[in-house]
# Entry
Amino acid sequence: MSDISKSKMEQDGSFNRKPSTFRDVIEKGGRYEPEKGRYHLYVSYACPWAHRTLITRKIKGLEDYVDVTVVSPHMGNHGWPFAKADAFPGAGDDPVIGAEHIKDLYLKVQPDYDGKFTVPLLFDKKLNKAVNNESSEILRIFNTAFNHLIPEDKAAIDLYPEALRGEIEASHEWIYPTVNNGVYRSGFATSQGAYETAVKALFDSLDRIEKMFESQKKNDTDEYFLIGNQLTESDIRLYTTIVRFDPVYHGHFKCNYRTIRDGYPLMHRWLQNLYWKHPEFKDTTDFDHIKTHYYWSHPHINPTRVIPLGPIPNIRPL
Ligand SMILES: N[C@@H](CCC(=O)N[C@@H](CS)C(=O)NCC(=O)O)C(=O)O
# Structure
């Protein structure tokens, strides 16, 4: 289950992501009560899904409430390793059960687990249970579950505001399959047809996003946001894909009609603004982990495991 090159592909060579297994919530009065220090978040800096949860944790000021451990970017035959199994700058060891790999945690809480050993993983240290391993749901948990415990200014930040929910959900419906997962569908396709279907849909969606920004008609110094002129989970979910696009997906996943920096001026500005003006984005973006992970961990795509030096810079200054 942890060897990506042995992932089951569909008959036509297309890649389908399996649904996550642990789907509980942290809520007052529930099995998982919001408590300081009770929950642990396992992430990889390389993984776009885990990266979403890291950004949200920082925006909501949850650093003292939910601890984090970062794994090594070398996702090998046993999946994601902790530093103990593969020392890498920025990677840590598991403080909860002393696991060597993420899969040890999954098998500890469910010995017959037969799903993927994925990050992010939100873990309850009190009951020794996996609470949730679906990033989109962890984002919603972080947005609200701890609001009664954290400072008012952080509690007031709402990344999924009631008034914008319709638009936000509508954006996920096409951005998730064609962009967030679309880059993987391009890169993991094992037939020409499956690749072409995925890459065309991806660039159609990038064109559509650029048009959404164009329709906002802003001044040079204004910041862009995807929905409702304010930062929402839609920006966070799109950012973790777009910040990886030029350094990784353009080459490694063959998403190479054009780059973001030269092909999508407004999306590029949106990206640069988030990265350079919001520390929650920059401080959680680690290009070394990102590039090392993809080019090393998919030997069926890059058998030499050579990691490219470019693009230089990974992200242009504002
Ligand atoms: N549905 C999950 C997907 C997470 C996911 O696929 N993570 C990848 C890393 S980017 C992973 O851990 N893969 C492990 C594997 O394929 O064995 C989410 O959004 O949280």
The pocket of glutathione is lined by residues 2, 4, 20, 47, 49, 79, 116-120, 133-135 (CB under 6 Å). The longest strand covers residues 39-43.
